[in-house]
Design goal:
39% of the residues lie in helices and 20% in strands. It has 199 residues and is α/β, with parallel strands linked by helices. A 7-stranded parallel sheet has the order 3-2-1-4-5-6-7, with helices on both faces. The two termini are 29 Å apart. InterPro entries: NAD(P)-bd_dom_sf (IPR036291), SDR_DHRS6-like (IPR051122), SDR_fam (IPR002347).
């Protein structure tokens, strides 16, 4: 049984991941709900979380805000929403979390399909998701003691389809339970530096 931290555990995807990994000891964290509260945009908050929970065997992030909007009207401040939250939030979780990760442990981040399949109004999401995937490739070659890092790139979730379908014409949504299997593969498998696509 592994001790697994799931950040964003109460979101649609996070709940499915928690269900798929329920045979392990789970620590469910979030910005507003969870056994532990954490703000991934605040390094002090991330440090405090790990000081409270101690060493873990796996870290999973299933969270991150992005900005969707037309490029012609987008401000740098709006673009920074995704950079500061989904990108740097997950990067900081990794940078700090690696020091609390047991030998042979794993880190799993979350990107998304628009890293490779752009959509209208999705330039911020494409940039952030692509950067996360590049970060994981680079980080994987430096982690030692058998520790691994991967990123899951899910399609839009079926459970969120009503909210996001206008952004994804012609896409086929995937069930959150199917996307969650990629997190199981990352935690319990052997791969590292990979983008695990669930399209």
């Amino acid at each position: 049984m592994k001790k697994i931290l799931i950040v964003g555990a109460h979101g649609t995807l996070g709940q499915a991941i928690s269900q798929a990994l329920s045979h392990h000891q789970l620590i469910k964290a979030g910005s507003r709900r969870g056994e532990v509260l954490v703000d991934l945009t605040d390094s002090a908050s991330i440090h405090a979380m790990f000081e409270r929970i101690g060493k873990v065997d796996a870290i999973i992030s299933a969270t991150g805000k992005l900005h969707f909007g037309p490029l012609a009207e987008m401000s740098a401040e709006q673009f920074r929403i995704g950079l500061n939250d989904k990108l740097m939030g997950q990067v900081e979780l990794t940078l700090i979390g690696q020091h609390y990760l047991n030998e042979g442990g794993s880190i799993t981040l979350t990107s998304g399909i628009v890293s490779e399949q752009p959509i209208r109004f999705g330039s911020n999401a494409s940039a952030v998701n692509s950067a996360l995937e590049g970060f994981v490739r680079g980080a994987a070659v430096e982690l030692d003691r058998g520790r691994r890092i991967n990123v899951v790139s899910p399609n839009v979730l079926r459970e969120s389809w009503d909210q996001y379908q206008d952004f994804f014409p012609g896409f086929e949504a995937v069930p959150a339970a199917r996307a969650a299997l990629a997190y199981v593969r990352s935690v319990e498998g052997v791969q590292t530096g990979q983008t695990l696509r669930v399209w």
